[in-house]
Amino acid sequence: MKPPVAAATLAVAAVLLSACASSSAPSTSAPSPGEAVETSFFEAVRPGPAMDLKAPPASLKAAYAETTAVIEADVTGVRTGREIGGMSSVIVTLAPVRVLRGELRPALPVGVEFGPHFEPAAVERIAAEMNASPAGRGVWLLRWQGEPPPARKPGTPKIDTTADVRLYRTVHPQCGVFVQGAGHVDAATARDDGERTGARVEGERFATLAELADHAVMA
Predict the structure, then answer these.
(1) Cβ-count burial of 3 within 10 angstroms (0-12 exposed, 13-18 middle, 19+ buried)?
(2) Quick one: which of 52, 53, 55 has its CA closest to 199?
(3) What is the rounded distance in angstroms from the CA atom of residue 108 to the CA atom of residue 172?
(4) pLDDT for 160
(5) Whole-angstrom Cα distance, residue 109 to residue 75?
(6) Are the CB atoms for 47 and 192 separated by under 8 Å?
(7) Residue 2 — pLDDT band, cuts 50, 70, 90?
(8) Spatial CB neighbours of 217, under 8 Å, sequence gap ≥ 6
C-alpha cells in the first residue's frame, strides 16, 4: 500500500508548489471596474501651479472633437524624450485595449509625449521613477502631433513647429487621461489647484471608467 501513499504525497506537494508559484507572480491584470487606481504614476506629468495652461475644453463633447482618437489603454513603459529649448520631455507608451472613437495612426506605436518641461539632468530619473510606479488602465484623449491643432481664436498658429509627428499628446492636462478613482473617475493628469471646470468635471461625474468609455463611444 506504500506506493499509493507516496503518489498521493507527491500530488499534494505539486499542488502546494503550484499555489506558491501563482501567489508570488506579479499580477498583470487591469483593475476591475470600481477598483481605484494608484495615481502616483501621473504626478510627474501634472502641470505645476506656475505653468500657464490654455483654457480646457468646456465639455467632454468638445474634448472629443479635438482628439484624433479616444482609447482605453494600458501603460507599457516610459522613456526619455527629446530636448527643446533646454527642457526635456518624457514619452509614455500605451497598449490600446479599445479605440472608443476616432482612429489611431496605423503606422505609429502609441507614444504620448509630456513636456518638454523637465530639467534634462533629471529626466532619466523621472522616467525611471514612473516606470517603477503602478499605472492602471485609463481612457486617453489623444491628438496626433501631425494634425494641426484647432484654432481657438483668430491669429492662433495652425501648425506647431515643435510637433513630433511620430507621437501623440493629450488634448489637455485637465482632461487628457481618466482613470478609476475611489467612487468615481479621476482626471489623472489634472492640476490639483481647485480648478474643476469643463470636461474634467463632466468626466469625474462618472462612477466607473466603463461608463466613461461608453460615453466616449456614444457621444
Answers:
(1) exposed
(2) 55
(3) 21
(4) 67
(5) 12
(6) no
(7) very low
(8) 100, 101
Beta bridge pairs of residue 94: 75
Residues with Cβ within 8 Å of 174's Cβ and at least 6 positions away in sequence, in order, are: 53, 56, 187, 189, 190, 191, 195, 197, 198, 199, 200
Q: Is 101 exposed, middle or buried (0-12, 13-18, 19+ CB in 10 A)?
A: middle
DSSP 57: P
3-state DSSP assignment of residue 80: strand
Contact 75, 190 (CB under 8 A): no
Helices (H), 38-155: 60-65, 123-132
Three-class SS state of 180: strand
- 84: closest CA among 150, 162, 154, 165? 162
Report yes or no: 96 and 75 within 8 Å, Cβ to Cβ: no
Assess whether pLDDT exceeds 70 at residue 18.
no
- 184 has pLDDT over 90: yes
Give the C-alpha separation, 4 to 192, whole Å. Answer: 65
Residues 54-88: pLDDT tens digits?
A: 889 999 999 999 999 999 999 999 999 999 999 99
Spell out the alpha helix ranges (H) of 25-133: 60-65, 123-132
Q: 27 — phi, psi (to 5°)?
A: -80, 135
Q: What is the pLDDT at residue 140?
A: 98
Q: CA 141: distance to chain centroid?
A: 9
